[in-house]
Amino acid sequence: MIRIVLSSFFGVHKRASHEADFANVNIVMLPFVAVILALMIGAAIFGFVHLVADFTSSRQGF
Fold first, then answer.
1. Closest CA to 12 of 1, 2, 3, 24
2. Residues 29 and 2 sit within 8 Å (Cβ to Cβ)
3. What's 1-60 look like in SS3?
4. How many CB atoms lie within 10 A of CB 28?
5. Can you tell me the distance from the alpha carbon of 2 to that of 19, in angstroms, rounded to the nearest whole number?
């Protein structure tokens, strides 16, 4: 299910594997997995930006 969600986030998925994946997926759990992965990716980007911003702000000498 994680592979399905990540491939839909990035838009890379072949038609044959798309149909094969959705043949045996739990539709009820799919939105929950998508939201959790979106939050994790967002938190990773947020943390990386704050890490870079903190590093650059301390290098300016203020």
1. 3
2. no
3. CHHHHHHHHHCCCCHHHHHHHHHCCCCCCHHHHHHHHHHHHHHHHHHHHHHHHHHHHHHC
4. 7
5. 15
pLDDT tens sequence across 9-47: 877 767 777 677 777 788 888 899 999 999 999 999 999
**How far out from the chain centre does Cα 62 lie?**
35
Q: Provide the whole-model pTM.
A: 0.70
**6 CB contacts (<8 Å, ≥6 apart)?**
37
| Amino acid letter, residue 51 | L
